[in-house]
Design a protein that fits this description.
10 helices, alpha/beta, about 15% strand, globular, TIM Barrel, about 45% helix, 8-stranded parallel beta barrel, 8 strands
């Protein structure tokens, strides 16, 4: 089956990041990077890492149209496969991300892996995301009620789900409740055997979904 794991590479060190990408990049659907690695190494690390896997920039953009445009263009110009934006900032801001993304896939956050005020407006955020033309949604793999809710209202948009692994979510449950891909970080990169930890997740998923 297709690989369903997005590896969250939440580290600072350049050499550690490259080493993990080299060993894991072809075993996952994509690698997700967040602000820590960018702040330490600069945006060009996205271009470096993209040699080993598709890169999703988890920037959770939440600003006015022009600011999100500038950031999105930088991610795009450095070879990112995708970018993550918040949707609570409204239709104009999210449309600016989509317009600036070019061929990049835009994913919008509609529910988080911990309790937040987004819980009360999730359906509204899904509608905003759909109207803006995003490719996919971000919904929690460790909060079944909200993941299921997002799937029910997604109208076919792809769903990527954080919260699996260190935050308590189960990979099989997340996929069965509607996630297309699950995001896993700490329980892989903090393992003494990251490749083995990743393989165990894949084995668990394959064994349960192929029954």
């Amino acid at each position: 089956m297709d690989n369903r794991i997005i590896f969250a590479l939440d580290v600072y060190d350049h050499d550690t990041a490259i080493s993990l990408a080299q060993s894991i990049g072809d075993r996952v659907f994509a690698i997700k990077v967040n602000w820590p690695i960018i702040l330490e190494n600069g945006i060009k690390i996205v271009n470096e890492l993209s040699r080993y896997s598709s890169i999703i920039c988890d920037f959770k953009l939440a600003d006015i149209d022009n600011t999100v445009r500038l950031i999105t263009e930088k991610a795009r110009d450095n070879g990112a496969y995708g970018i993550i934006s918040h949707s609570f900032t409204g239709l104009g801001s999210l449309r600016a991300v989509v317009k600036s993304a070019g061929n990049m896939k835009v994913f919008s956050v509609v529910s988080m892996s911990q309790e937040s005020y987004l819980d009360s407006i999730t359906e509204e955020l899904i509608k905003t995301s759909r109207d803006a033309g995003v490719f996919g949604l971000v919904a929690p793999g460790n909060r079944p009620y909200y993941l299921k809710k997002v799937r029910e209202h997604s109208e076919g948009m792809k769903i990527i789900s954080p919260g699996v692994g260190a935050q308590g979510g189960d990979i099989v449950s997340a996929i069965m409740l509607g996630a297309d891909y699950v995001i896993i970080g700490r329980s892989i990169y903090s393992s003494p055997d990251p490749v083995g930890a990743l393989d165990n997740y894949n084995k668990n998923l394959n064994n349960n979904l192929n029954r």
